[in-house]
Amino acid sequence: xxxxxxxxxxxxxxxxxxxxxxxxxxxxxxxxxxxxxxxxxxxxxxxxxxxxxxxxxxxxxxxxxxxxxxxxxxxxxxxxxxxxxxxxxxxxxxxxxxxxxxxxxxxxxxxxxxxxxxxxxxxxxxxxxxxxxxxxxxxxxxxxxxxxxxxxxxxxxxxxxxxxxxxxxxxxxxxxxxxxxxxxxxxxxxxxxxxxxxxx
Length: 200
Fold this sequence. Notes:
8 strands; about 20% strand; alpha/beta; six-stranded mixed beta sheet
């Protein structure tokens, strides 16, 4: 076990489009207050909604912190009261412009990278094992071909699959950042059980 193996990095995204407050980052900040137990060194980081910068920060996470697991949290504006567990990241199809008006050359995340990369976390098993009162959780195999999917693929690529992605809904009077932070804690602790089983 290496010296960084108790580090878990959780990221959220900054503002984009009409979302001046991004629920993903607000939820991650609430998670940080709660922590993941005494044995886990939890680090949090905000990623910009910019392809290249997000990818650079993800690369830095894996090269400098070498976490046991990196969990990326993003906002799914279409999900009104739904948390979505994403199983895999896709390499191509990134045509939508980011916050700076750019999209990756050739719509691709990693030149010559595999078409898709699966997380070592089994989201279907995770989905079966958890419930969070007050919100539905589903799992998905399509993270949406935007910054979320792009970031996820980059993290899976650099982290040899030891990454996970969770889509959260926008904040509303029914869904507070505190509530989402608590939900993230429940979900990530369950992910860590899977990591533990791998190491045994």
